[in-house]
Structures are given as structure tokens and as C-alpha cells.
Here is the input.
Amino acid sequence: MTENVILVDDNDNQIGVEEKIAAHQNGGKRHRAFSILIFNDKNELMLQQRALSKYHCGGLWTNTCCSHPRPGEETEAAAHRRLQEEMGFDCELREKFSFNYTAPLDHDLTENEHDHVFVGNYNLEPKINKEEAESWKWISMIELNKDVLENPDKYTFWFKVILAEFNKH
Here is the structure.
């Protein structure tokens, strides 16, 4: 099944639709995305280790869940859908901020996204989809920030940008 992403300008206005992999090739076309950060009551963040079979960044640690809304799908609705599909649960989400970034990826792909960052609270274990996530863990923000500084290559580029922005708040 072909999966399409929503092409956007720098202000997140829709300007088209493109097949997902094609949107990541040849320097990448700006498209809408979302990232989710789920915290528990101890203020630990749930990290996901991307499945080794992912089309980019396999095996890297990242935020709880991330993906792209489908054409015609509201971004928050897509966030709830993917949280259930990837991590096997859903919870209340609120949008915290959004930002644009471009980053080279493996496999000659480029990420060029307007990323909406959502935050939620959940205290149980996820039921991860092994096609999406290799593993998961809870981590304190102090431990996470220390590890990202010491081992930046273990984390996705966008997650490091999100973490820096999140730490400002």
C-alpha cells in the first residue's frame, strides 16, 4: 500500500501530497510530521528504540512515537492513531510546540519536516509493535540529557532537536 505524506511550506500550509519515500529522497521535500513525548508520574520519559528494519534510523533511540499524518487526517488524530499502532496504547495529548528541521539520514534519505510535538502522560507498560519499535524504556530527564551528551550517535537527529527545545521550557 502506498503511503503519502502532506507537503507543506515553512509555515505548515499544505502545498501538495507525495509518496513517503519519494518525499525523503533528493534532498527531501518539506512535509508535516509529529513527535510524541509520553511521561509517567515520576516525570520519566518513555523512549522508543526504532525497529532495526525501519527505512531509516533503525536501532536508534528516539521519542515515544513519531510519524506523519495522512492526507485529510488532522495531525492530533494521526498522533493518537500512531501511538496505538506503534506502542499499543493511547492517552490524552496536548501540542507543546512545532518546528522545522532538515537532516541527512542513512540510505541517502533526507528528513525535511515541520514537526508538531505532542506531550502526554501514561504510567503502564506499552505493548510495542515489533515492526515499529525494537525496544522501549523509561528514563529520567537528567539521565537522558547526560546520555545524549555522552552518546549522541545513539539518538535520532530530530529527537535531539526536540530535547533541546523541550529543555528550554
